[in-house]
Write a structure and sequence with these properties.
The structure holds two protein chains of two kinds.
Chain A lengths: L11 H28 L2 E2 L6 E2 L10 H9 L7 H31 L5 H9 L6 H11 L5 H8 L14 H26 L2 H9 L4 H30 L2 H6 L8 H10 L4 H35 L1
Antiparallel strand pairs in A: 1-2
Helix pairs in contact in A: 1-12, 2-12, 3-7, 3-9, 7-9, 8-9, 9-12, 11-12
Chain B lengths: L1 H15 L5 H10 L7 H10 L38 E7 L5 H11 L2 E7 L2 H9 L7 E4 L4 H6 L3 E2 L8 H5 L16 E14 L27 E4 L2 H11 L10 H18 L2 E3 L2 H7 L4 E5 H11 L9 E4 L8 E9 L5 H11 L2 H12 L10 H6 L29 H15 L3
Parallel strand pairs in B: 1-2, 1-3, 6-7, 6-8
Antiparallel strand pairs in B: 3-10, 4-10, 5-8, 5-9, 5-10
Helix pairs in contact in B: 1-2, 8-9, 8-15, 9-15, 10-11, 11-13
Chain lengths: 303, 427
Amino acid sequence: MREHSGIYPRGLWQAFALPGVVWLLLLFLVPFYAVIGVAFGGVDPIFLIPVPAWNPLDWNADSVVQTLRGFLPGGDYWAVFLRTTLYVAIALALCLLIGYPVAYYISRHAKRTKSVLLALLVLPFWVSYLMRMLAWVNLFAPSGYVNDFLAWSHILPDPPDWLNGNPVSVILALVYGYIPYLILPLLAALDRIDKSLLEAARDLGASPFRAFLHVTLPLSMTGVLGASVIIALPMFGDYYTPNIISGSPTTSMLGNQIDLFFHGGPQPAIGASLTLILSLFLAVLMTYYMHSVARATREVRDE
Amino acid sequence: MRDHDAGVSAILEDLKAGRISRRQAFKTLAALGIGTALLPALSRLASADDQLMGPGGIPLARPNKPVTLPLWEDPIKSGLEPETDGTFTIFNYADYIDKALVDEFGKLHKVKVQITTFDSIDQAITRLATHAVRVDVTEIVPDRLAQAVAGKLIKPVNPDYVPNLKKNVWPSLQSPFYDQESRYTVPYTVYTTGIGWRSDKVSEDIAKLANPWSIFWNAQAYKGYVGVLDDSREALALAMLYRGFYDINTEDPAAIDKALEDLKALIPICNPKVNITQYQTLPEGTSWLHQSWSGDLLAGVFSYLPEGTDPSVLQYWAAPRGKGPIQNDCWAISATTKKPVLAHLWLNYIIDNTVATDNFLNFNGYQPPMNSITPDALVAQGRIPASLRNAVMTPDEVGPDSLQECTLTAKGQAQWQSAYAKFVSGA
């Protein structure tokens, strides 16, 4: 048993964690249990608004089972689930392709400009996500600046309709919207890598590329995973990006279905069930991430 | 014998309330030994039962099957003085009423007036039902009235305080089918669902097509610039009307599935956008052909037409009476009001000729059903472009044979919503 140091009052450090614990309980667990209650609950017979089943003994699994069936190949949600997964996977890959070099450059090579570049990275957070997406609508409109430039420069004399149900636009908008959230944690991970390890690799004859491949990249993998999880989770539930950028059923995502069932009508339990199933799917990703972090921590400790 | 009578009464009550079907009632009555003597009465009851039952056992109103809503309390007495001081709260969609007119009402009655907004009528009902808001008057739609009355969310109206209803409003909406005797509501705006398009982009004269609804299924040339209303009832009704199927309150799964199939067929043809921003996108030219509400086109001309754009490029077509939806919105008094007299005066104020016309022509573009407003006069005065003459309706467009999207049973609503969810999933 750990001795009480005597310098600090008993329970001081636990008290520091208290706000976070309360926040987690009130703002995550309670709402999440409410979603479970709605998924397994009923609706008010007059107003058709959800009546959550708080007691697990009262749960009715019909809606959850019906929704789960929809995720089977050919089911109601199969196509939209596949589309969502594909969009998120491509957007994530693009974010990493663009974001990793940026984070790497700032961490390793941006000496005096580092603080300026960091400020520039934080700059998008000053404007709300919604506003940034609306700005895209103006930029990419048929007669917007992007198409004007493409036509003027003859890069694309006949520019495409970016906003008319174009999946490329939705994916690019996801990349644009979420990339700052990827770069910052990645930068922190790269900054934490002990530079002496790289120097050792170079001293032992590794080329800069091999040093990156065998030292930097493996050591930054937990950061890559963490940053990926941070942006993949909200991307999976995103519904306003496809709404604003496309508006076509051909680019709708799972979040749009959740929004539709929660927005009104007599089937809020379907909306809640979709949320639960999506959460379970994301929990698998989270578990993999936590497992990877634990393994990396073990390896570092063992070395 | 008393038990027997009570059993019969209970069965009849269940039948009336829609808890059991007519067939179940007949079988159970037969089991109780009810003979042929009662058959005529049961037949009468059976025809009454053709009207589906909604929340709280209130029959679901249809234009040809009007409903008198039950009074859950007496209206306030006549001749009371309006309340003054404090805050009077109006519950409404954002940007659906002119703030200047609201302020004017406040000045007139020496109260501070506040507008609390909702995004959808579902949200409004939820917030009223959960007492998340305390308001004095609320905007409401006819297909949610049964809910609001059964759940005691709105108060009965004393017509003595609302003389403008008889004086100014279309006779066809003075005692509308959804609220006979106007026990709870006064009408606010009236609008058709039709087709809005840009005549400088769409080559067809849609109004002259044999089946104007078919334009959406022949819109390959306008791919990417076509829109369908983001509303389960409106979108599926579009497909039904295209096929000449006019029972737009059907709960027949086969009819709904057919509409879904037709709606999905639009995706490869014109990849429609699903939204309700046509009031902006049509005038701005980012949409060329859109299922629209009549008020959107007028609002587009009043507020969104870019400078230099000829308003006559905006066109609107609505189907003749009985062949296309015509709807109206209403105002009602919230059950939580602390200013019931003033709330009545609000209902009267909103159907004052000057107030209603100002709100229509200087603000939201949605027509109030006032006798004083006629499309010919508006065109002659230059208040609206001639190309949008049919975005303004006349009283004879509302009647027992008009089409209106009315309340469905909970099961029916679920069927429509599930079908619509499949369409918007793009599967």
